[in-house]
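Board notes (copied after class):
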Amino acid sequence: MSGVWALIAFVGVIIAWNAGAKRNIGEAMILGFLAVCGFAIIGGLPGGGSPWTAIGSSVLDAMQEEVTFAALAFVFMSYLLTRTPLLDKLIDLLNSVLGGLRGGSVYTATVAGGLFGAIAHIGAAVTAAVGTVTVPWMKRSGVRPEIAATVVAGGAGMGVSFPFSATMFILVGGLAAQGIMRPEEIVAPLAFAGLWCLGYRLLLVFFLVRRYRIDRVASEERLPLARSLRNGWTSLLLFAPIIVPLLLTRGPLAGALGTYSGVAVESKAPVALADGSTLPPEPYAMPDVISLITWIPVLMIALVLLLGRRHLPRTAAGWWRTIGRAAPSFGVIGITVVAAFAASNVLAELGLAE
């Protein structure tokens, strides 16, 4: 039962410090982790053993998780992406397709928020990138300022809905560490959640366009589709680092590769869950040899470095300044993920799974 109370304390401290005291989520996660540690130290562990040893190994395991690397890699990729014109070119493409519709500027802002959310995953970055371009369009189309702000700010929500966002990393930390789900099993539900969020917002836009009689984007502010494709077709390649690893680990192509390479021949050892039960052995599959969590951010960074090379630093000093400006985001996201994993590991030691 101590595990349940520790979980309640963990969540309560985070909400109180983040929402009540208005402090950042990194600080809240540290205090939540310390609260969980307090239960382990004062009440002891149900299975015996030293709580200090359990806490130390929990933190070490959290720092060695591939999800910790992936979270920081996505932060770096998102920061680099906002330093290049790739997102602006993608918005021009969307505007060429959707701008001619009634309320086209609002549709463009909403779909752009969903697309950027699937790429960048940093809510503030999504809002800033989309709003800078689409808010002037919306105002000139007759959209009231508060409606334009609502539409753009709502895009931040899709930044945390689609995988591979910080939401996913925290879920992976909580569920995978408890032995309830494997990291790759969380991808599909979160992808559905992101699409549901986008679909819901498109229905809301449909209502707003008719309720406030929002006009289409002026023709002089819309590039012809052929021209926007010619100028910005490379921005569509941003989805390749997501699609390619998914194709290699899911579906018929992944099955054929697994059979051809011999990956699917051998079976894994039985998996012992935290509640004492055991999963039967399963054959190896492509997700066991190609980690989506690792390779998607790696490929994204490589592609952004390639496509945006003309707009990125070319000297060691320039890169040092760039990394320095991204450092605050590294700190908050890194601490959040490590604290989530470490707290989940301690909660497992406290018997939360049972």
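Comment from the instructor: Strands lie at 271-272, 278-279. DSSP finds 15 helices and two strands in the chain.
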